[in-house]
Design brief:
By secondary structure, the chain is mainly α. Helix content is 77%, strand content 0%. It has helices spanning 15-50, 54-88, 96-110. The chain starts with 14 loop residues before the first helix and ends with a helix.
């Protein structure tokens, strides 16, 4: 191992513990994605079928508003659940806005 100045030493957990944690997170995210995306697909399918009816021509705005709100709510919920599972396993994707704020704060401290 090469010694890098300023780097902290990586202290891995036991491999079986890491693998178990990752397997659990992946199963959790898979289930949440299937449920969330399945319900979004079902709502979208019903909305598309409804748009083919005469009722859609008479009152589409209010119904579409409700349907789109439900789709947005399910998508946000799915996103939050999956991000939480990834965070719990230490595998979350970097959040660009947090990285930009951290870079800006560092620039101010170094100026």
């Amino acid at each position: 191992m090469v010694d890098t100045p300023g780097a902290t030493a990586f202290k891995p957990q036991t491999p079986s513990k890491n693998i178990g944690l990752l397997q659990s997170a992946i199963r959790n995210m898979d289930g949440q994605a299937r449920e969330g995306l399945g319900s979004i697909g079902a709502v979208a399918y019903l909305a598309m079928r409804w748009l083919e009816t005469p009722d859609a021509c008479r009152s589409s705005a209010a119904v579409l508003h409700t349907v789109l709100g439900l789709i947005q709510e399910r998508a946000d919920n799915c996103l939050n659940l999956i991000a939480g599972a990834a965070d719990g396993a230490g595998c979350s994707a970097p959040r660009e806005h947090k990285m930009r704020r951290a870079a800006a704060a560092k620039a101010v401290r170094n100026s």
